Structures are given as C-alpha cells and as structure tokens.
Amino acid sequence: MYNKAEETSGKRLLGGLCSTAGGLLLLLFGAFTAGGGLIFFGLLCLAAGVTSLTVTRMGRLWDGLQAEERAAAWPGILVGWLPAAAVVAFIGLMAQL
Predict the structure, then answer these.
(1) Alpha carbon distance 5, 56 (integer Å)
(2) Are 80 and 16 in contact (CB under 8 A)?
C-alpha cells in the first residue's frame, strides 16, 4: 500500500543524513588538507544537517511543526540533496557526450 507520508519522511531523513555526512566529510578533508574554506563549509553543512534531523525528529515530524521550526529544518534538507542533484546532473551531461 502506498503511503505518501512515509515517502516524504524518508526523503527528509535522507536529506538530513546526507547533509550531516557530507559536512563531516568536508570538515575532515579540510582539516587534513588545511583548507579553511572547507572547514567552514563543513561546519555549516554539519550544523544544518544536525538541526534538520533534530527539528524533524529524524524526518518523522513535519506537519506539526511551526513555521520557525520548518525554516530551521529546510537548510539541512536542501544541502543534503544538493550533492545528489549534482551527481544526477553530471551523469546527464556525460550521457550527452
């Protein structure tokens, strides 16, 4: 049986997890290569991911959130989906060649 609520909560969870993991990877890579910009961007991604996972209670809660809580959760979800969109765009561009 199709359940739209479970599908969207999974997308929010995946976006938050990807943002957190990506931020951690950028932070570690920046620390090992002494890249100040990577460390800063990694901290921002990590904070956005953790905030979105905390506010949405691991992606399960969205409908009961207030406007301020939704606004706090969106950056982590969007940052998490940005690398996935870049990979899809790259694959599409390579298929054109």
Answers:
(1) 13
(2) yes
